[in-house]
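Researcher: Quick test of sequence recovery. Tokens follow.
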């Protein structure tokens, strides 16, 4: 039986458990995992069982609520000490996606304004609200984005910024889903997205399930489909956007942006404001997560595909300069990179 019922992460408040889909098993197996164990939660984010910037943010909020609610005492000092410990540790799990920090700062803030009696309930309420808000924010992105798409348009997307990367709808795929609801059929070219294949495993899977016309391509086919005039727009997600509009997203996004610029194809970055980091002046200040070399050399292969011991560089993200971004599609509307700096941290809460 499914607890999540179409969502990617959720809070089972009755049993005080964090629930998530193990995305490393998709598309072969759909498995919901229910846990109140910190190590299992941390591992889920670290190993990309739960992934995608909005999803990991909401999941962190849910995990904090579960962990605090499982503690027997109601002593404020003890509980707040635990909140601080969880937040300080969990935030290190994935350094590029700012949503993790955003969510844990909210948790910390809620803890600070709570009293001994209500800290548990308040964190529970916050976690449930974060999950609900994520759905409405992504739907709004979808509504604004759908207006930019005409019936039978084809888009290209990179990695997975669909419903599996958020609670529901996603960011870059939300416009496709809302356009479909409104009777417009959008074709999607899906970059496979080396090395972890989020495009092939996740984007293709969720689009097929939703009845969207999806075509999987190798990452290095993007130029060819653009050159043939097959792509009307590129829609991608993001993990952290600096004040000047430079945007970090899955490795390879920068190449797609350069190509879109060359072929004069609009390049949209779909951004919930929880992904905006106005504390950073520009993209050079964004910390780029580096992951293990074996993700490049053997992870998804039946056998090792590179010489034993070869050095491999595995940046998980790259930064697309604001100059290559046509516009951000956000829950507040479609915003040009030049305008994004007018927004402040207030807009992220
Ligand atoms: O490493 P991942 O799979 O977490 O990377 C995901 C992405 O890069 C997404 O495009 C981004 O988080 C936006 S998700 C709406």
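Model:
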């Amino acid at each position: 039986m499914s607890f999540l019922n179409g969502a990617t992460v959720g809070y089972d408040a009755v049993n005080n458990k964090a629930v998530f889909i193990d995305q490393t098993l998709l598309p072969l197996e759909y498995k919901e995992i229910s846990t109140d164990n910190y190590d299992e939660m941390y591992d889920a984010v670290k190993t990309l069982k739960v992934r995608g910037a909005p999803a990991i943010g909401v999941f962190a909020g849910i995990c904090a609520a579960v962990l605090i609610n499982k503690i027997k005492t109601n002593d404020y000092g003890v509980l707040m000490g635990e909140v601080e410990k969880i937040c300080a540790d969990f935030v290190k799990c994935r350094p590029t996606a700012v949503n993790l920090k955003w969510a844990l700062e909210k948790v910390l803030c809620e803890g600070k304004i709570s009293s001994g009696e209500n800290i548990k309930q308040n964190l529970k309420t916050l976690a449930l609200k974060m999950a609900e808000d994520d759905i409405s924010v992504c739907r709004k992105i979808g509504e604004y984005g759908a207006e930019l798409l005409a019936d039978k348009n084809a888009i290209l997307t990179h990695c997975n910024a669909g419903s599996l990367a958020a609670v529901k709808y996603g960011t870059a795929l939300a416009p496709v889903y809302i356009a479909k609801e409104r009777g417009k059929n959008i074709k999607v070219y899906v970059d496979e997205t080396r090395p972890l294949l989020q495009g092939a495993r996740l984007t293709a899977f969720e689009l097929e399930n939703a009845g969207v016309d999806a075509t999987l391509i190798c990452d290095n086919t993007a130029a060819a489909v653009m050159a043939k005039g097959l792509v009307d727009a590129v829609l991608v997600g993001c993990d952290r956007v600096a004040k000047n509009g430079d945007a970090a997203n899955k490795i390879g996004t920068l190449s797609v942006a350069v190509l879109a610029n060359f072929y004069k194809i609009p390049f949209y970055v779909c951004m919930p404001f929880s992904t905006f980091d106005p504390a950073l002046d520009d993209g050079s200040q964004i910390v780029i997560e580096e992951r293990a070399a074996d993700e490049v050399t053997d992870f998804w292969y039946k056998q090792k595909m590179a010489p034993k011991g070869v050095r491999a560089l595995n940046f998980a993200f790259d930064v697309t300069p604001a100059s290559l971004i046509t516009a951000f599609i956000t829950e507040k509307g479609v915003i040009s990179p030049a305008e994004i700096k007018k927004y402040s941290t207030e807009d992220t809460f």
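The pocket of MRU is lined by residues 48, 51-54, 97, 159, 161, 165-166, 170-171, 198, 237-239, 249-250, 316 (CB under 6 Å).
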